[in-house]
């Protein structure tokens, strides 16, 4: 009986306070919508990619490829061995293909933009020779000789190309020069989804562009009738293993080649995109968690105030027979209803968020088959909304159940638990001391271990702030409130008193801004420090007057260096060719100077040995020397992607220079490690001008020399620094956009708290109006109170952000971050912004307070 009565009371309470209900629900909606949006977006993209990968290697029984990223491919000798034993192995048909990255020019001579999707050159085989290759030409025909290409419909649309168009193709690696081609066909395949660019060449041309004649990129096999894909795979694997063993190589066959069924190829492709999407989903959900954490404090604050305002009502219910459990369940029932409503609305908003993100990614070339709202998204939104709301309301509900009826009837505006702060302040001090100690210790070290210690210190510091903020709020708000109250007189004093009268509530309200601005300051400190390192590295580490880089971080072929050398005003031209090899069984990147000595274009301080790099030499930074224990004269053995061991000798050690790589091998060793078709440039081509050559003249010469390479761009030192800094700025802008969620919730929290506070203080405001306070003065009081709370939260967040950001940057010195750069402009802007946020958040509560009618307020219960 009592339970039914309490249920009715809860429902009537929600129905009679519609504005309060809307504000509380909205705080839940913002948090859950981002969770739902993240789940819907990633599942939709995953589904779209899976539909594409379902057609990869379609009709292929077994595929053989190289295992290493920079391998030249599968040796022709192995292909010949498979052909020789086709009958014995169960092979119906074998197709040897070559492929590689390319850049296609559009009708205006510029590179066709893919939005991050692959841009590949592929081998076309006639249907009677192909295995699983399904190419349908909607216009024109297949390429038949050198100088002819066919492209997918998506690339044709993006590049405004048609059958008969004259254009250009640049191979992304190797030594091939840009080639003039004619589009003879346009094909329509499943792989044309998104920004993908597929350029088909005839077999002879593809072999010339993407192979040295001794290797092929892929071997596709079709099984004979009665032979399963698995049986063919095992037979082919055994033959290749036998061939590797006979070659005398000590490496395992699986380290050199992948022998997979068509189903395995498709599954591996799906897994690769799933790994990316898992990371992306984790990032989105991390920011959603921040929003939910902020929302949790707001919901907790809201229910605490609601309980305080209903003290008499709840006490009366206790007096007429309701138990503690009845009261607690009544509050939790309201929270459950709010959570369900917020979760459902949040799901709807999440669908809209996901649709917006998908529209953007589709415009950038990523595939999309429409919004896919699965059961996982529905359950996650509602579950998160309900759980977060119930957890947030649990403490207020527990407090409400413990209020003695007689005490609660005496005063309806006393918030439960608003008593002594000694215990939580003492706990805050303990956590604070431990947090500061961890931050200091971590900041004195470098590397992953030190960063982990800083992370632990950050967590302890946040806990300390959560516990200690109420005690801190009184003196801090009191000090700057005393300063700012002077121009406003009595109104300013009253606002300061209201801001500190309930420190728990003020601290919980301010924490929303504290957390958001803490993250803004940490990210800002990291970003500005990275930009400072970039500027310092270029200024101190490079002698170059100009650099030539690939747009969108695309690699450049080595032939670009030879083209740049043709510029009359260029004196020194050096780039770093790069590739991947194995060191002690682990993948590692190596580079080699190409075009000249690295010391000609970079300022390098040698600590041991010489910068002269013989063919078998190894030049390393002092950091690499420490990490690996290498000394001058030591022999270091690298293993190529083909399993060949290449022995190098440490001939020089230099001070770490962020403008160049830390491991450089001689050109002879690089050629042994990297086949010609996989050689490419890492980073910029560095150019030093001849004495007396004007910068403008050299730029014109360089632009002319590199024009045919499509993706090559010429930059001076300042432009080069700005281009790198702009990438950092874009990343920071993305993070700030995601953090805006928590700031929106923070503003909502202040609005919510002030609106409920106005209701709670209705009699007080009515009394002030009765004794002469004007409406404008009431509004000004609320504005100032909100501003005090907002600025307090911003100050706390700034201090906490710097306390975490500075030691975190110091730990990154291990990876080359030179020093801490504090974004003072950003910090100043956030503090001013916090004051503005305070005024904006107070607009509606202030107007509501100003409209209070004195007589009605004084006589109301």
From TrEMBL:
<feature type="domain" description="ABC3 transporter permease C-terminal">
    <location>
        <begin position="737"/>
        <end position="852"/>
    </location>
</feature>
<feature type="transmembrane region" description="Helical">
    <location>
        <begin position="426"/>
        <end position="445"/>
    </location>
</feature>
<keyword id="KW-1003">Cell membrane</keyword>
<feature type="domain" description="MacB-like periplasmic core">
    <location>
        <begin position="506"/>
        <end position="704"/>
    </location>
</feature>
<feature type="transmembrane region" description="Helical">
    <location>
        <begin position="505"/>
        <end position="530"/>
    </location>
</feature>
<keyword id="KW-0472">Membrane</keyword>
<protein>
    <submittedName>
        <fullName>Uncharacterized protein</fullName>
    </submittedName>
</protein>
<feature type="transmembrane region" description="Helical">
    <location>
        <begin position="279"/>
        <end position="303"/>
    </location>
</feature>
<dbReference type="InterPro" id="IPR050250">
    <property type="entry name" value="Macrolide_Exporter_MacB"/>
</dbReference>
<dbReference type="Pfam" id="PF12704">
    <property type="entry name" value="MacB_PCD"/>
</dbReference>
<feature type="transmembrane region" description="Helical">
    <location>
        <begin position="788"/>
        <end position="809"/>
    </location>
</feature>
<dbReference type="GO" id="GO:0022857">
    <property type="term" value="F:transmembrane transporter activity"/>
</dbReference>
<feature type="transmembrane region" description="Helical">
    <location>
        <begin position="373"/>
        <end position="395"/>
    </location>
</feature>
<feature type="transmembrane region" description="Helical">
    <location>
        <begin position="735"/>
        <end position="759"/>
    </location>
</feature>
<dbReference type="GO" id="GO:0005886">
    <property type="term" value="C:plasma membrane"/>
</dbReference>
<comment type="similarity">
    <text>Belongs to the ABC-4 integral membrane protein family.</text>
</comment>
<keyword id="KW-0812">Transmembrane</keyword>
<dbReference type="InterPro" id="IPR025857">
    <property type="entry name" value="MacB_PCD"/>
</dbReference>
<dbReference type="InterPro" id="IPR003838">
    <property type="entry name" value="ABC3_permease_C"/>
</dbReference>
<keyword id="KW-1133">Transmembrane helix</keyword>
<feature type="transmembrane region" description="Helical">
    <location>
        <begin position="821"/>
        <end position="844"/>
    </location>
</feature>
<feature type="domain" description="MacB-like periplasmic core">
    <location>
        <begin position="22"/>
        <end position="237"/>
    </location>
</feature>
<dbReference type="Pfam" id="PF02687">
    <property type="entry name" value="FtsX"/>
</dbReference>
<feature type="domain" description="ABC3 transporter permease C-terminal">
    <location>
        <begin position="286"/>
        <end position="405"/>
    </location>
</feature>
<feature type="transmembrane region" description="Helical">
    <location>
        <begin position="331"/>
        <end position="361"/>
    </location>
</feature>
<feature type="transmembrane region" description="Helical">
    <location>
        <begin position="21"/>
        <end position="41"/>
    </location>
</feature>
<feature type="transmembrane region" description="Helical">
    <location>
        <begin position="451"/>
        <end position="484"/>
    </location>
</feature>
């Amino acid at each position: 009986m009592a339970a039914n009565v309490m249920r009715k009371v809860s429902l009537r309470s929600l129905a009679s306070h519609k504005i309060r209900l809307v504000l509380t629900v909205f705080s839940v909606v913002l948090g859950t919508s981002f969770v739902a949006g993240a789940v819907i977006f990633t599942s939709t993209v995953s589904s779209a990619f899976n539909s594409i990968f379902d057609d990869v290697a379609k009709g292929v029984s077994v595929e053989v490829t190289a295992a290493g990223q920079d391998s030249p491919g599968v040796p022709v000798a192995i292909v010949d061995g498979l052909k020789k034993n086709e009958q014995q192995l169960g092979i119906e048909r074998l197709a040897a293909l070559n492929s590689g990255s390319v850049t296609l020019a559009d009708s205006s001579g510029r590179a066709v933009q893919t939005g991050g999707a692959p841009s590949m050159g592929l081998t076309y085989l006639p249907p009677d020779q192909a295995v699983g290759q399904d190419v349908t030409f909607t216009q024109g025909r297949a390429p038949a000789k050198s100088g002819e290409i066919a492209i997918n419909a998506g690339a044709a649309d993006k590049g405004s190309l048609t059958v008969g168009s004259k254009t250009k193709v640049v191979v992304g690696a190797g030594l091939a020069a840009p080639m003039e081609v004619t589009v003879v066909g346009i094909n329509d395949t499943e792989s044309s989804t998104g920004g993908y660019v597929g350029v088909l060449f005839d077999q002879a041309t593809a072999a010339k562009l993407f192979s040295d004649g001794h290797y092929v990129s892929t071997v596709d096999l079709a099984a004979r009738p009665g032979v399963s894909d698995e049986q063919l795979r095992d037979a082919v694997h055994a033959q290749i293993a036998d061939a590797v063993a006979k070659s005398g190589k000590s490496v395992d066959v699986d380290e050199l080649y992948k022998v997979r069924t068509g189903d395995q190829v498709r599954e591996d492709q799906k897994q690769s995109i799933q790994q990316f999407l898992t990371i992306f989903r984790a990032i989105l959900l991390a920011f959603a968690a921040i929003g939910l954490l902020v929302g949790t404090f707001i919901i907790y604050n809201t229910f605490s105030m609601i309980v305080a305002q209903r003290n008499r009502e709840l006490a009366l219910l206790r007096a007429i027979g309701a138990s503690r459990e009845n009261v607690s369940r009544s509050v939790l029932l309201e929270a459950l209803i709010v959570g369900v409503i917020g979760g459902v609305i949040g799901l709807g908003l999440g669908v809209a968020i996901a649709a917006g993100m998908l529209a953007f990614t589709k415009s950038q070339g990523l595939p999309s088959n429409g919004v896919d709202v699965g059961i996982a998204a529905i359950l996650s939104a509602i579950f998160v909304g309900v759980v977060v709301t119930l957890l947030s309301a649990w403490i207020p509900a527990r407090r409400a159940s413990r209020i003695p009826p007689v005490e609660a009837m005496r005063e309806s505006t006393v918030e439960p638990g608003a008593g002594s702060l000694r215990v939580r302040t003492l706990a805050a001090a303990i956590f604070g001391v431990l947090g500061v100690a961890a931050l200091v210790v971590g900041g004195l070290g470098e590397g992953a271990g030190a960063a982990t210690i800083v992370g632990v210190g950050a967590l302890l510091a946040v806990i300390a702030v959560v516990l200690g903020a109420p005690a801190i709020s009184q003196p801090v708000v009191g000090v700057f409130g005393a300063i700012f109250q002077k121009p406003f007189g009595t109104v300013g004093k009253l606002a300061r008193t209201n801001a500190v009268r309930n420190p728990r509530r003020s601290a919980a309200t301010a924490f929303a801004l504290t957390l958001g601005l803490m993250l803004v300051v940490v990210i800002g400190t990291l970003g500005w420090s990275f930009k400072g390192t970039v500027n310092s590295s270029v200024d101190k580490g490079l002698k170059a007057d100009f650099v030539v880089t690939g747009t969108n971080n695309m690699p450049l072929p080595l032939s670009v260096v030879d083209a740049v050398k043709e510029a009359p005003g260029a004196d020194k031209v050096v780039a770093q060719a790069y590739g991947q090899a194995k060191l002690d069984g682990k993948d590692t990147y190596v580079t080699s100077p190409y075009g000249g000595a690295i010391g000609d274009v970079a300022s390098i301080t040698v600590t041991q040995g010489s910068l002269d790099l013989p063919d078998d030499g190894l030049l390393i930074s002092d950091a690499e020397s420490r990490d690996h224990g290498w000394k001058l004269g030591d022999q270091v053995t690298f293993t190529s992607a083909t399993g060949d061991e290449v022995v190098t000798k440490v001939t020089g050690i230099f001070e770490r220079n962020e403008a160049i790589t830390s491991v450089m091998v001689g050109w002879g060793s690089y050629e042994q490690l990297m086949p010609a078709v996989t050689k490419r440039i890492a980073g910029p081509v560095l150019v030093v001008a001849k004495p007396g050559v004007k910068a403008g003249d050299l730029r014109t010469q360089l632009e002319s020399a590199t024009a045919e390479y499509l993706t090559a761009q010429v930059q001076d030192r300042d432009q080069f620094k700005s281009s790198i800094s702009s990438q950092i700025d874009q990343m920071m802008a993305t993070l700030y956009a995601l953090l805006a969620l928590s700031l929106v919730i923070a503003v909502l929290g202040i609005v919510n708290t002030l609106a409920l506070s106005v209701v709670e203080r209705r009699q007080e405001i009515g009394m002030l109006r009765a004794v002469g306070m004007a409406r404008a003065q009431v509004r000004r009081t609320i504005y100032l109170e909100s501003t005090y709370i907002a600025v307090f939260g911003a100050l706390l967040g700034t201090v906490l952000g710097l306390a975490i950001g500075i030691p975190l940057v110091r730990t990154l010195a291990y990876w080359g971050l030179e020093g801490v750069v504090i974004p003072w402009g950003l910090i100043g802007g956030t503090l001013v912004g916090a004051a503005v946020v305070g005024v904006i958040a107070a607009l509606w509560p202030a107007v509501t307070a100003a409209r209070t009618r004195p007589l009605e307020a004084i006589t109301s219960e």
